[in-house]
Write a structure and sequence with these properties.
With about 150 residues, the protein is α+β, with helices and mostly antiparallel strands. Among the domains are: about 40 residues, no CATH class; about 60 residues, no CATH class. A four-stranded antiparallel β-sheet has the order 1-2-3-4, with no helix packed on it. The protein starts with a helix and ends with a strand.
Length: about 150
């Protein structure tokens, strides 16, 4: 096949004739593969807590943007929650919430307070939960080293 494609590149053979010759057997193989292929079903995993709205158990579902929590009583209850990753650091701005890892629309990681919109703390670098000994500002992790932000 590769040699035949090289012949097309060199102008020794027409690509339409090659495709007419190669595609019909390939199409039959493709249809056979589709018929024999197993259909995979993704089952919901129990989340371990109940829905705030209706009290039914929450489950972990897989959507087009990744995993999330959803009520098992769907479609009657449409309650959903994102799965957040806590980093174990108290918010340096409000000192009440926890800093969590988030994703931007462009799929970049940033860190923000879980009390948003009440607290608008955000950082592109991961806070480490200690203050700078010189200026008392929070420290962040940069290239696996602590740095003053």
């Amino acid at each position: 096949m590769e040699e035949e494609l090289d012949h097309i590149e060199e102008g020794k053979e027409e690509w339409v004739k090659l495709i007419d010759r190669v595609y019909p057997p390939f199409e039959k193989e493709l249809e056979t593969a589709e018929e024999k292929m197993e259909k995979v079903q993704i089952k919901d995993e129990p989340a371990g807590f109940d829905c705030d709205v209706c009290g039914h158990p929450m489950v972990i579902k897989l959507g087009r943007y990744g995993k999330f929590y959803a009520c098992s009583n769907f479609p009657e209850c449409r309650n959903t929650k994102p799965i957040v990753k806590e980093i174990g650091v108290t918010c340096p701005k409000c000192e009440q919430g926890q800093v969590i890892e988030r994703k931007s629309k462009k799929n970049r990681t940033f860190y923000g307070c879980d009390r948003y919109p009440d607290c608008d703390f955000i950082s592109n670098n991961k806070p480490i939960g200690r203050d700078c000994p010189k200026c008392s500002h929070y420290l962040v992790e940069k290239k696996k080293k602590a740095a003053n932000k």
